[in-house]
């Protein structure tokens, strides 16, 4: 097996497309071929420059976004902490941060999202929600000052999270809200960061996570749902957090019945050859956000395997080079920001997760290189330094070392 | 969203207007203001942004309170009034979902309504709600056959109603598969309902699996590059185990596997570069102990599928350890 076969960037993408062109035309294929053509168009563009990360443009876009969000973001009125997190995390990965004034505004804003009963909601006057709580806590960790972290009312937060717990181990995302693995992940991630994990909180969580696996190995959002990148990340990252807790308290691994080998086979087959990026589910289209959900999942599985040293399991990394090609060559927008795929407009969510995915890609390159994006704590998707600061602040003894 | 068409688009508001509407609505929630004026504000916001989850809680509170109130103050017209209440609530979520087919809180609100309907209305009425629920899912799946909310909802509706999976559900899934072999969500749904439908009838289950093998092979020969059929095929060859039972009740014997091996070889004559056929063949040869031939397949795969090179390399090493 020659080494040159490994470098897909020199592979003939055109031939991959032509090989697949003569397919039975279901709607699925028509959509897939459309995406592939849009990629090839970029490949053939003689004016295309070198692949490089347009740091300055992205920074400008992010800072601008902090000042004023366009109308289309009214759809995110119930997700304001997410906007904060996407922006400050993206800036952090670019080695930048909000100005002092911006940081003050962020902290005040997030503070106004905090519910008097504990947890953070989508905005002022909204009921607290686990997803927005995760986003708010992470954003405050990234701002990274004691003043920022002091905003979090820990006792109320803990009681509120506990109040959302179901008997089967899952969590409702908000009172009377839906229960799925996002809720469980956000609850555990927040508790993990803030040093709030307890036996009571983690009871049955591992059983619930194990129940999410479908026949192909992927994890769905709820039992009986099909394998999906976002949920697979949430489920497995939550399992890793549980494992940290069990190691610290019981000095053993968390008991579970997840077939990790099968999950791994499912996820490594999510990287698409021609595009280089990841799809979220079997037979769906590539999307830059899955660079983190799927790429990060592969990295976490790799870490788990090395930690447990089970020789039966595959320790396998994906093609960081191809993922980087997808992100830098096809997903960067003029004026800054990243998009889902060619043809879509940029947005802050994809900017955040494309950059997070790029950081993962940089940890999975065949050859080492300088000027890589900073490392992330894969369990919570904030920079390692921010995690360490928060861990020290909250007096956490469980910290994940890579 | 990818290829999903929307229903009727209500007129947009500019962001300043929206912000003040949302503020107003949240205030009304805080004050528990259930006047008709309040409703029109709240519902306008939900129309524009069905992810405004706090306002769905407003509706939940209203429903619960109204049921209690009418039961006490006007029991003779309870059924009529409450049926109307549910109709208007279902309509609201339906409009929201046609516009935003993946809005979690809108789906959740329907679950809430179904549960409350079941506990407060007679079966003659709530049965209609449940029947209609499956119709709504079907319509939304017409718009986007990969909408996992729609698929999951079908399962949940059954759970709430307290019924097992039905043959009709199996027919529904079969139709979707014939409409589009690449509809992985349909194959997945099938993998969920088969063990439930036939779990306690091994002979019947075996028969259905044999039929499914023929079905999936049609898909594979039509489109050998399609992952959907291959993943399902692989599951069948493992004995179609339920995710919740580690060992299958089926007998997957060497006879059956040898038959499928010849199917794979037939396909590989037509499509020698088909990655999944090669990988499946590898697993079968490995199971039969033909390690030399198996390793050659891995080498082929490493060239055909370089993104998974490490995985195939690992399989090689694992095999060498055994021999």
Return the string of H and E elements of chain A.
HHHHHHHHHHHHHHHEEHEEH
Number of strands of chain B: 0
Under CATH, the topology of the largest domain in chain B can be stated as Serine Threonine Protein Phosphatase 5, Tetratricopeptide repeat
Class computed from helices, strands and strand pairing of chain B: mainly alpha
What ranges of chain A have pLDDT less than 50 throughout 5 or more consecutive residues?
A: 1-10, 397-402
User: End-to-end distance of chain A, in Å?
Assistant: 31 Å
Q: State which percent range the strand residues of chain A make up.
A: under 5%
Number of strands of chain A: 4
Number of helices of chain B: 15
Mean pLDDT metric of chain A = 90
- Runs of chain B with pLDDT <50, length 5+? 1-8
Largest sheet of chain B: none
Looking at the overall shape, the CATH architecture of the largest domain in chain B is Alpha Horseshoe
CATH superfamily of the largest domain in chain B: Protein prenylyltransferase
Name of the CATH first level of the largest domain in chain B? Mainly Alpha
Structurally, the number of domains of chain B stands at 2
> Which H/E pattern describes the elements of chain B?
HHHHHHHHHHHHHHH
Overall structural class of chain A, as computed from helix and strand content, comes to: mainly alpha
Note the overall shape of chain B.
elongated
Q: Alpha-carbon distance between the termini of chain B?
A: 50 Å
Strand content of chain B: under 5%
């Amino acid at each position: 097996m020659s080494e040159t076969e490994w470098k897909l960037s020199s592979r003939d993408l055109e031939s991959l497309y032509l090989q697949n062109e003569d397919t039975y035309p279901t709607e699925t294929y028509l959509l897939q071929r459309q995406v592939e053509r849009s990629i090839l168009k970029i490949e053939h563009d003689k004016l295309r420059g070198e692949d490089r990360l347009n740091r300055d443009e992205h920074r400008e876009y992010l800072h601008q976004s902090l000042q004023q969000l366009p109308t289309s973001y009214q759809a995110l009125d119930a997700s304001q902490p997410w906007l904060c997190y996407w922006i400050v995390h993206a800036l952090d990965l670019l080695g930048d941060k909000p100005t002092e004034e911006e940081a003050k505004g962020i902290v005040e804003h997030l503070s106004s999202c905090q519910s008097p009963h504990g947890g953070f909601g989508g905005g002022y006057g909204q009921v607290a929600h686990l997803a927005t709580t995760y986003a708010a806590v992470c954003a405050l960790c990234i701002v990274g000052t004691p003043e920022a972290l002091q905003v979090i009312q820990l006792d109320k937060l803990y009681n509120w999270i506990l109040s959302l717990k179901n008997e089967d181990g899952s969590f409702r995302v908000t009172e009377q809200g839906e229960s799925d693995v996002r809720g469980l992940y956000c609850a555990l991630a927040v508790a993990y960061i803030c040093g709030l994990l307890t036996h009571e909180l983690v009871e049955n969580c591992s059983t619930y996570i194990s129940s999410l696996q479908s026949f192909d190995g992927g994890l769905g959002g709820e039992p009986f749902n099909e394998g999906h990148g976002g949920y697979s990340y949430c489920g497995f990252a939550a399992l890793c957090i549980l494992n940290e807790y069990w190691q610290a308290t019981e000095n053993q691994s968390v008991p579970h019945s997840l077939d990790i080998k099968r999950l791994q086979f499912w996820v490594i087959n999510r990287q698409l050859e021609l595009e280089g990026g990841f799809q979220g589910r079997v037979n769906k289209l590539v999307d830059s956000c899955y660079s983190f959900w799927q790429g990060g999942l592969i990295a976490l599985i790799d870490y788990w395997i090395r930690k447990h040293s089970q020789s039966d399991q595959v320790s396998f990394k994906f093609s960081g080079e191809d993922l980087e090609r997808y992100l830098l060559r096809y997903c960067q927008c003029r004026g800054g920001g990243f998009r889902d795929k060619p043809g879509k407009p940029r947005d802050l969510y994809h900017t955040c997760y494309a950059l997070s995915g790029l950081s993962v890609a940089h940890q999975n390159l065949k050859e080492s290189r300088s000027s890589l994006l900073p490392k992330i704590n894969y369990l919570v998707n904030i920079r390692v330094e921010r995690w360490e600061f928060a861990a020290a602040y909250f007096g956490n003894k469980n910290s994940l070392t890579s | 969203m990818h290829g999903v068409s929307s229903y009727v688009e209500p007129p947009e508001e500019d962001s300043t207007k929206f912000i003040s509407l949302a503020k107003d609505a949240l205030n009304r929630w805080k004050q528990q203001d259930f006047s008709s004026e309040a409703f029109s504000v709240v519902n306008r916001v939900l129309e524009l942004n069905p992810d405004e989850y706090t306002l769905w809680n407003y509706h939940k509170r209203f429903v619960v309170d109204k049921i209690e109130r009418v039961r006490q103050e006007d029991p003779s017209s309870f059924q009529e009034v409450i049926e109307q209440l549910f109709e208007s609530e279902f309509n609201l979520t339906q409009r929201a979902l046609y516009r935003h087919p993946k809005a979690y809180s809108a789906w959740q609100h329907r679950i809430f309504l179904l549960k409350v309907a079941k506990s407060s209305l007679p079966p003659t009425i709530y049965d209609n709600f449940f029947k209609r629920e499956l119709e709504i899912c079907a319509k939304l799946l017409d718009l986007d056959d990969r909408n996992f909310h729609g698929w999951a909802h079908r399962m949940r509706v059954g759970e709430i109603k307290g019924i097992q999976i039905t043959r009709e559900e199996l027919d529904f899934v079969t139709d979707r598969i014939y409409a589009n072999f690449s509809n992985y969500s349909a194959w997945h749904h099938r993998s969920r309902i088969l063990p439930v439908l036939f779990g306690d009838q091994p002979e019947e289950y075996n028969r259905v699996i044999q039929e499914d093998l023929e079905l999936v092979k049609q898909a594979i020969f039509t489109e050998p590059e399609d992952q959907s059929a291959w993943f399902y095929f692989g599951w069948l060859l493992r004995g179609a185990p339920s995710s919740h039972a580690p060992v299958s009740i089926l007998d997957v014997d060497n006879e059956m596997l040898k038959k499928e091996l010849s199917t794979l070889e037939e396909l590989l004559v037509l499509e020698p570069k088909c990655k999944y056929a090669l990988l499946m063949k590898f697993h079968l040869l490995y199971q039969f102990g033909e390690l030399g031939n198996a390793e050659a397949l891995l080498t082929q795969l490493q060239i055909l599928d370089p993104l998974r090179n490490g995985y195939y390399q690992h399989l090689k090493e694992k095999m060498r350890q055994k021999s």
